[in-house]
Design a protein that fits this description.
Helix content: over 70%
Number of strands: 0
Shape: rod-shaped
Strand content: under 5%
Distance between the termini: 107 Å
Length: 118
Amino acid sequence: MSLLQRIFSSNWVITLVATTMGVLLAFYVDGLGQQHRIKKQKALALKNIIEELTNNRKQLEEPSDNIRILYLLDTLTQLNKGKDLNVIMGEPEKIHAFIDPHPHIHITDSTIQLDIFA
C-alpha cells in the first residue's frame, strides 16, 4: 500500500478534511447571511432618509411656520429697535406682550434682578 493510500484511508485525515470543509462552508453561509442583513439595513436606512428629507421639505414649504418666524423676527426688531436680537430690552408691558404669545421663549437674566415678571 502506498503512502497516499494509507493517508487517505486513515480516519483522522478524513475527519480533518471533512471538518475543515464544514467550517469553511459555515463561514461562507454566515457571510451570505450577513450580506443579506446589511443589504436590508441599507435599504431601510435609505428609505428612512428619503422619508425624513420629504418631511423636512414639506415643513419648509409650509407657509404658516415661515410667517410665524418672520413675525417673531419683526417683533424682536421693533422691540429692540434693530439692536442685538439675543437680548430683549424694553418696557415691561412690551416685553410681556411679546413673550405671552411665545411660551417657547425662555427668559434668563444673568446680570441684574428684574421684578417685571412677578
